[in-house]
Amino acid sequence: MAVPKGTIAVEEAVVNPNDLDFLADVASMYAPGAASPAPGTGSSAHHALAQKLADIHGERLRKMDAEGVEYMLLSVTAPGCQGVVDPVKAQALATKCNDWLSSEVKKNPARFGGLAALSMHSGAEAAAELRRAVKELGMFGAILNNYQSTGTDGRGKIFFDTPEYNVFWETVQELDVPVYMHPSYPTSGDLASPDSQYGPRTHLLGAAVQFHLDLSFHLYALISSGIFDRFPKVQVVAGHLGEGYVLATARWPAPSTPSFFPPETCRPRI
Q: Hey, is 76 helix, strand or coil?
Protein backbone atom coordinates (compact mmCIF):
# COMPACT_ATOMS: atom_id res chain seq x y z
CA MET A 1 0.00 0.00 0.00
CA ALA A 2 1.32 3.43 -0.93
CA VAL A 3 2.37 5.70 1.94
CA PRO A 4 -0.01 8.69 2.15
CA LYS A 5 1.66 12.05 1.59
CA GLY A 6 0.95 15.54 2.82
CA THR A 7 1.83 15.45 6.51
CA ILE A 8 3.41 18.62 7.91
CA ALA A 9 5.34 18.15 11.17
CA VAL A 10 5.55 21.37 13.16
CA GLU A 11 7.57 20.48 16.27
CA GLU A 12 10.76 18.85 15.07
CA ALA A 13 13.87 19.32 17.20
CA VAL A 14 17.40 19.74 15.86
CA VAL A 15 20.82 20.70 17.23
CA ASN A 16 23.89 22.22 15.69
CA PRO A 17 26.53 19.50 16.27
CA ASN A 18 29.17 22.20 16.68
CA ASP A 19 27.33 24.08 19.40
CA LEU A 20 26.04 21.82 22.16
CA ASP A 21 27.18 23.53 25.35
CA PHE A 22 23.64 24.68 26.14
CA LEU A 23 22.64 21.04 26.55
CA ALA A 24 25.18 20.30 29.28
CA ASP A 25 22.83 21.28 32.11
CA VAL A 26 20.08 18.87 31.03
CA ALA A 27 22.09 16.09 29.39
CA SER A 28 21.66 13.72 32.32
CA MET A 29 17.86 14.12 32.06
CA TYR A 30 17.47 13.35 28.38
CA ALA A 31 20.23 10.71 28.68
CA PRO A 32 19.41 8.91 31.96
CA GLY A 33 22.41 7.33 33.65
CA ALA A 34 24.90 9.58 31.89
CA ALA A 35 26.84 12.25 33.72
CA SER A 36 26.33 15.82 32.57
CA PRO A 37 29.27 16.82 30.35
CA ALA A 38 31.39 19.79 31.27
CA PRO A 39 30.73 22.86 29.10
CA GLY A 40 33.07 23.03 26.15
CA THR A 41 33.90 19.32 26.10
CA GLY A 42 31.51 18.51 23.28
CA SER A 43 30.75 15.12 24.81
CA SER A 44 27.00 15.62 24.34
CA ALA A 45 27.61 15.18 20.62
CA HIS A 46 28.42 11.49 21.12
CA HIS A 47 25.09 10.63 22.67
CA ALA A 48 22.77 8.76 20.28
CA LEU A 49 19.91 11.23 20.76
CA ALA A 50 22.14 14.22 20.02
CA GLN A 51 23.35 12.52 16.87
CA LYS A 52 19.76 11.97 15.72
CA LEU A 53 18.89 15.59 16.46
CA ALA A 54 21.92 16.76 14.50
CA ASP A 55 20.89 14.79 11.43
CA ILE A 56 18.68 16.74 9.02
CA HIS A 57 19.43 15.73 5.46
CA GLY A 58 20.26 12.05 5.96
CA GLU A 59 18.26 9.52 7.95
CA ARG A 60 15.68 12.14 8.99
CA LEU A 61 14.81 12.84 5.36
CA ARG A 62 14.69 9.15 4.51
CA LYS A 63 12.24 8.54 7.37
CA MET A 64 10.16 11.50 6.25
CA ASP A 65 9.81 9.91 2.83
CA ALA A 66 8.99 6.50 4.33
CA GLU A 67 6.32 7.91 6.66
CA GLY A 68 4.70 10.37 4.29
CA VAL A 69 5.98 13.55 5.95
CA GLU A 70 6.28 16.13 3.21
CA TYR A 71 7.48 19.06 5.29
CA MET A 72 9.12 19.68 8.67
CA LEU A 73 9.25 22.89 10.65
CA LEU A 74 12.58 22.61 12.49
CA SER A 75 13.61 24.27 15.76
CA VAL A 76 16.58 24.04 18.10
CA THR A 77 15.82 21.60 20.91
CA ALA A 78 15.00 22.61 24.47
CA PRO A 79 16.15 24.32 26.58
CA GLY A 80 17.75 26.41 23.85
CA CYS A 81 18.34 30.03 24.80
CA GLN A 82 15.88 29.76 27.71
CA GLY A 83 18.40 27.61 29.57
CA VAL A 84 21.24 30.16 29.27
CA VAL A 85 21.26 32.43 32.34
CA ASP A 86 23.79 34.94 31.01
CA PRO A 87 21.96 37.49 28.81
CA VAL A 88 24.95 38.13 26.53
CA LYS A 89 25.61 34.43 25.96
CA ALA A 90 21.90 33.72 25.42
CA GLN A 91 21.66 36.45 22.78
CA ALA A 92 24.78 35.17 21.05
CA LEU A 93 23.36 31.64 21.06
CA ALA A 94 20.12 32.85 19.47
CA THR A 95 21.99 34.59 16.67
CA LYS A 96 24.23 31.58 16.06
CA CYS A 97 21.35 29.09 16.15
CA ASN A 98 19.24 31.09 13.73
CA ASP A 99 22.06 31.64 11.27
CA TRP A 100 22.89 27.93 11.35
CA LEU A 101 19.30 26.71 11.06
CA SER A 102 18.47 29.05 8.20
CA SER A 103 21.53 27.81 6.32
CA GLU A 104 20.37 24.21 6.77
CA VAL A 105 16.84 25.02 5.62
CA LYS A 106 18.20 26.69 2.49
CA LYS A 107 19.76 23.37 1.48
CA ASN A 108 16.27 21.91 0.99
CA PRO A 109 13.55 24.55 1.37
CA ALA A 110 10.95 22.33 -0.27
CA ARG A 111 11.09 19.98 2.71
CA PHE A 112 12.20 22.13 5.66
CA GLY A 113 11.35 25.42 7.35
CA GLY A 114 12.51 26.93 10.64
CA LEU A 115 11.32 28.50 13.88
CA ALA A 116 13.66 31.05 15.44
CA ALA A 117 15.41 30.63 18.77
CA LEU A 118 15.23 33.73 20.98
CA SER A 119 16.85 34.92 24.17
CA MET A 120 14.07 36.36 26.32
CA HIS A 121 16.21 38.20 28.86
CA SER A 122 15.06 41.40 27.13
CA GLY A 123 11.77 41.91 25.35
CA ALA A 124 13.31 44.52 23.05
CA GLU A 125 16.26 42.30 22.07
CA ALA A 126 13.93 39.36 21.49
CA ALA A 127 11.77 41.51 19.23
CA ALA A 128 14.79 42.63 17.22
CA GLU A 129 16.10 39.08 16.75
CA LEU A 130 12.65 37.82 15.77
CA ARG A 131 12.40 40.57 13.17
CA ARG A 132 15.83 39.64 11.78
CA ALA A 133 14.99 35.94 11.75
CA VAL A 134 11.72 36.46 9.90
CA LYS A 135 12.68 39.27 7.53
CA GLU A 136 16.28 38.32 6.73
CA LEU A 137 16.49 34.58 7.39
CA GLY A 138 13.02 33.47 6.30
CA MET A 139 11.91 31.93 9.61
CA PHE A 140 8.20 31.24 10.04
CA GLY A 141 7.95 32.26 13.71
CA ALA A 142 9.68 31.50 17.00
CA ILE A 143 9.87 28.79 19.61
CA LEU A 144 10.19 29.62 23.32
CA ASN A 145 11.05 26.89 25.81
CA ASN A 146 8.81 28.10 28.62
CA TYR A 147 10.34 30.74 30.92
CA GLN A 148 13.76 32.36 30.64
CA SER A 149 16.15 30.98 33.25
CA THR A 150 18.25 33.60 35.02
CA GLY A 151 20.42 34.18 38.09
CA THR A 152 23.82 32.81 39.00
CA ASP A 153 22.27 29.58 40.29
CA GLY A 154 19.82 29.24 37.40
CA ARG A 155 16.82 29.33 39.71
CA GLY A 156 15.41 32.63 38.48
CA LYS A 157 12.45 32.53 36.10
CA ILE A 158 11.31 35.29 33.77
CA PHE A 159 7.79 34.95 32.38
CA PHE A 160 6.64 36.88 29.35
CA ASP A 161 3.36 38.34 30.59
CA THR A 162 4.85 41.52 32.10
CA PRO A 163 4.83 45.01 30.52
CA GLU A 164 8.49 44.69 29.51
CA TYR A 165 7.42 42.13 26.91
CA ASN A 166 4.74 44.28 25.26
CA VAL A 167 7.33 45.33 22.67
CA PHE A 168 7.95 41.67 21.88
CA TRP A 169 4.27 40.76 21.48
CA GLU A 170 3.68 43.92 19.44
CA THR A 171 6.42 42.75 17.06
CA VAL A 172 4.92 39.26 16.90
CA GLN A 173 1.63 40.82 15.86
CA GLU A 174 3.26 43.12 13.31
CA LEU A 175 5.19 40.27 11.69
CA ASP A 176 2.08 38.04 11.75
CA VAL A 177 3.97 34.91 12.78
CA PRO A 178 3.17 32.38 15.53
CA VAL A 179 5.07 31.78 18.75
CA TYR A 180 5.35 28.14 19.76
CA MET A 181 5.43 27.71 23.55
CA HIS A 182 7.37 24.54 24.34
CA PRO A 183 8.13 22.94 27.72
CA SER A 184 11.58 22.41 29.17
CA TYR A 185 13.27 20.70 32.10
CA PRO A 186 14.10 22.68 35.26
CA THR A 187 17.70 23.81 35.58
CA SER A 188 20.11 21.77 37.69
CA GLY A 189 20.20 24.67 40.18
CA ASP A 190 16.44 24.55 40.49
CA LEU A 191 16.48 20.81 41.10
CA ALA A 192 19.24 21.09 43.70
CA SER A 193 17.35 23.69 45.71
CA PRO A 194 16.07 22.45 49.10
CA ASP A 195 12.60 23.72 48.27
CA SER A 196 12.46 22.27 44.74
CA GLN A 197 9.18 20.50 44.13
CA TYR A 198 10.86 18.14 41.67
CA GLY A 199 14.18 17.57 43.46
CA PRO A 200 12.93 14.58 45.50
CA ARG A 201 10.49 13.59 42.74
CA THR A 202 12.61 13.31 39.63
CA HIS A 203 10.31 10.56 38.34
CA LEU A 204 7.80 13.33 37.59
CA LEU A 205 10.20 15.24 35.31
CA GLY A 206 9.55 15.47 31.62
CA ALA A 207 6.59 14.75 29.40
CA ALA A 208 4.61 12.61 31.83
CA VAL A 209 3.88 15.34 34.40
CA GLN A 210 6.30 18.27 34.74
CA PHE A 211 6.15 19.54 31.16
CA HIS A 212 2.43 20.27 31.10
CA LEU A 213 2.24 21.46 34.71
CA ASP A 214 4.99 24.04 34.24
CA LEU A 215 4.07 25.28 30.79
CA SER A 216 0.33 25.49 31.48
CA PHE A 217 1.08 27.96 34.28
CA HIS A 218 2.89 30.19 31.79
CA LEU A 219 0.02 29.89 29.33
CA TYR A 220 -2.49 30.93 32.01
CA ALA A 221 -0.26 33.88 32.88
CA LEU A 222 -0.20 35.02 29.26
CA ILE A 223 -3.94 34.59 28.83
CA SER A 224 -4.86 36.50 31.97
CA SER A 225 -2.38 39.35 31.38
CA GLY A 226 -4.39 41.05 28.65
CA ILE A 227 -1.80 40.40 25.94
CA PHE A 228 -4.43 39.03 23.59
CA ASP A 229 -6.58 42.08 24.14
CA ARG A 230 -3.75 44.52 23.49
CA PHE A 231 -2.44 42.55 20.54
CA PRO A 232 -5.45 40.66 19.15
CA LYS A 233 -3.63 39.16 16.18
CA VAL A 234 -0.99 37.41 18.29
CA GLN A 235 -1.03 33.65 17.83
CA VAL A 236 0.49 31.30 20.42
CA VAL A 237 0.86 27.60 19.69
CA ALA A 238 0.87 25.07 22.53
CA GLY A 239 1.62 21.50 21.52
CA HIS A 240 1.00 18.21 23.32
CA LEU A 241 -2.78 18.68 23.29
CA GLY A 242 -2.40 22.20 24.64
CA GLU A 243 -0.39 21.16 27.73
CA GLY A 244 -3.66 20.73 29.66
CA TYR A 245 -4.88 24.23 28.81
CA VAL A 246 -7.86 23.00 26.78
CA LEU A 247 -9.20 20.85 29.61
CA ALA A 248 -8.92 23.68 32.11
CA THR A 249 -11.08 26.05 30.08
CA ALA A 250 -14.15 24.09 31.15
CA ARG A 251 -13.70 25.61 34.63
CA TRP A 252 -13.61 29.24 33.43
CA PRO A 253 -15.07 31.25 34.97
CA ALA A 254 -15.52 29.47 38.27
CA PRO A 255 -17.19 31.05 41.33
CA SER A 256 -13.91 30.84 43.24
CA THR A 257 -11.76 32.53 40.57
CA PRO A 258 -11.46 36.23 39.77
CA SER A 259 -12.96 37.50 36.54
CA PHE A 260 -9.57 38.21 34.95
CA PHE A 261 -9.78 35.23 32.61
CA PRO A 262 -10.38 36.17 29.00
CA PRO A 263 -13.62 36.08 27.06
CA GLU A 264 -14.36 33.32 24.58
CA THR A 265 -12.76 35.35 21.80
CA CYS A 266 -9.31 34.88 23.34
CA ARG A 267 -9.25 31.10 23.43
CA PRO A 268 -8.92 30.29 19.71
CA ARG A 269 -5.63 32.16 19.56
CA ILE A 270 -3.90 29.49 21.62
A: strand
Strands 179-182 and 156-158: unpaired
Summarize the confidence of residues 214-220 as an average pLDDT. Answer: 94
Secondary structure class of 9 (helix, strand, coil): strand
Q: Which residue stretches of 31-165 are H helix?
A: 48-54, 59-67, 87-106, 123-135
As a whole number of angstroms, the distance between CA 123 and CA 42 comes to: 31
Identify the CA nearest to 157 among candidates 146, 168, 142. 146
**What is the rounded distance in angstroms from the CA atom of residue 47 to the CA atom of residue 248?**
38
Q: Which helix (H) or strand (E) holds 169?
A: helix 166-175
Question: What is the rounded CA–CA span in Å between residue 48 and residue 55?
Answer: 11
- 3-state secondary structure string across 204-216: HCCCCCHHHHHHH
Distance CA 127, CA 9 (A): 26
Residue 28 phi, psi dihedral angles, 5° rounding: -70, -15
Residue-wise pLDDT tens digits, 226-258: 999 999 999 999 988 888 877 777 776 655 555
268 Cβ contact list (under 8 Å, min separation 6): none
Q: Which domains does the chain have, with CATH numbers?
A: 72-269 (3.20.20.140)
pLDDT digits (tens, 9 = 90+) for 161-193: 999 999 999 999 999 999 999 999 988 888 888
Whether a cis peptide bond, with omega within 30° of 0, leads into 194 is no
Cα–Cα dist 19/77, whole Å: 12
CB 219, CB 179: distance < 8 Å: no
Residue 90 exposed, middle or buried by CB count within 10 Å (0-12, 13-18, 19+): buried
pTM: 0.87
